[in-house]
Specification:
about 450 residues, globular, alpha/beta, four-stranded antiparallel beta sheet
């Protein structure tokens, strides 16, 4: 009976809530001067996070839903690096002074599509303009199919202490179906190269719900990954959005598992990770017990941003590069997605923001409730409401939509409090959506919850 109930909720679409409000609600034609004003008013004593986006990959993966460009030659990548260097300088000059970085993350695309020399030059620019906290996390995403020994050594020499790999699935039939063939020994070699270079933290991304994937194949993949002992593993459901990502049209719909099969894969993979000694973190992350993410989860200090679950407490994340998203205490911004428009703005001396959203007090209240629910799988909405000066029982209308989940044994409600049950934990996105004031009027399409 519970399997039937779970599958019914699992097939419902819901945002991933790496932010609230979510990106589809950012406003177009956002004034560049407004973002400058937000940056200028930051407290220079507060640490910030930096996110740098490189939208290039050397090989195309059919499952990918990211904004990326295929780099068949290096020329456009090198030009992009030059423009990114200009944006780094423009952004630093917009701040109230030299600030300290607590987290830095290179994402994409594939940041290691940059040459080692360009990556080094860009990192030198960043370090020349910002200070770094002694315990700063400095992370980069990579592709084991194209990572060279030279790049691995350079990553270590530049002070990176965390690297992420998209493993996805090791079954060769699945890999062929998604155009990403990378045997376990290839990933193992990349991990060993980075660890030898001094990169202590290794993250793996796994995906369930891929074409031709089965419970047996994802469990086997988990065991192969666990043997390499990554510190963290993210377990995502494949989001099939061919109306947005044209490359996904290469995937045969008939080869995709249904909602019940997806849920079974997610459950089996999660159980296998726990059996291998990993701690379940929030909705879809797992970490070794002594990893900082596990510690943050145990102590209620876990946070969530556009990179997923994080230990980052900074109130400001400064995004640079085409399509990157940033956040300040005043609101969200997003750069131009199209690299030409982004480059033209930067060359003209402008911060290349295309969209933004000032935050209201109601946004901040709901954002905190959603973040705590997504991170802790429980939240006291009444107490948080009092901290924001919200009306008494402000949460009551939202709870009406959660009563169905309580009746199905997926959560427990009690005077302003929600607690997901073990069976309901994978469905926390559905519970969080009850607090989303934008969702009902939105035309945005979202992936299924599990």
């Amino acid at each position: 009976m519970m399997d039937t109930v779970f599958a019914r909720y699992a097939s419902r679409p819901a945002p991933r809530y790496t932010s609230y409000p979510t990106a589809p609600h950012f406003q177009k034609d956002f004034a560049e001067t407004r973002y400058r004003d937000w940056l200028s008013k930051l407290d220079r004593d507060d640490p910030v996070s930096l996110y740098l986006h490189v939208p290039f990959c050397r090989q195309m993966c059919w499952y990918c839903g990211c904004n990326m460009k295929l780099a068949s030659r290096y020329g456009p990548v090198g030009e992009y690096a030059k423009t990114l260097r200009q944006e780094i300088d423009l952004t630093a000059r917009a701040l109230p002074g030299r600030m300290t970085v607590s987290h830095l993350h290179w994402g994409g695309g594939t940041p290691t599509a940059l040459s080692p020399d360009d990556l080094q030059s860009l990192m030198e620019d960043v370090r020349a303009l910002w200070d770094f906290a002694q315990d700063a996390e400095i992370a980069i995403e990579s592709d084991p199919r194209t990572l060279t020994a030279e790049m691995a050594d350079r990553i270590g020499a530049l002070g990176f202490n965390r690297a992420s790999f998209g493993v996805q699935e090791f079954d060769i039939q699945v890999q062929n179906a998604i155009n990403r063939v990378q045997p376990p020994d290839m990933v193992q070699r990349s991990v060993e190269q980075l660890r030898a270079a001094g990169v202590s933290g290794i993250n793996f991304d796994l995906i369930y719900g891929l074409p031709h994937q089965t419970v047996a194949s994802i469990v086997k993949t988990v065991r192969l990954c666990a043997a390499m002992r990554p510190d963290r593993v993210a377990l995502f459901g494949y989001a099939h959005v061919p109306w947005m990502a044209k490359n996904q049209r290469m995937i045969e719909n008939d080869a995709l598992p249904g909602s019940a099969a997806r849920a079974a894969q997610a459950s089996a993979a999660a159980q296998a990770l726990v059996a291998e000694g990993y701690v379940a973190i929030g909705l879809d992350h797992f970490a070794l017990p002594d990893d900082a993410l596990s510690v943050a989860s145990r102590t209620g200090q876990l946070h969530r941003n556009f990179q997923g679950y994080t230990t980052d407490r900074a109130q400001t994340m400064i995004g640079m590069g085409a399509t990157s998203i940033g956040r300040t205490p005043s609101g969200y911004v997003q750069n131009f997605v199209e690299t030409g428009a982004w480059a033209r703005a930067v060359t003209a001396g402008l911060l290349p923001v295309a969209k933004g959203l000032p935050l209201t007090e109601d946004d901040r209240l709901r954002a905190e409730v959603i973040e705590r629910l997504m991170c802790d799988c429980h939240v006291d909405a009444a107490t948080i409401g009092r901290q924001y000066g919200a009306p008494e029982r402000w949460w009551a209308p939202e709870f009406e939509t959660l009563q169905e989940m309580e009746a199905d044994g997926l959560l427990i409600l009690s005077e302003g409090k929600i607690r997901m049950t073990p069976q309901g934990r994978p469905l926390v996105r559905i519970a969080a959506a009850a607090f989303d004031a934008y969702l009902q009027s939105s035309s945005a399409r979202h992936s299924v919850a599990v």
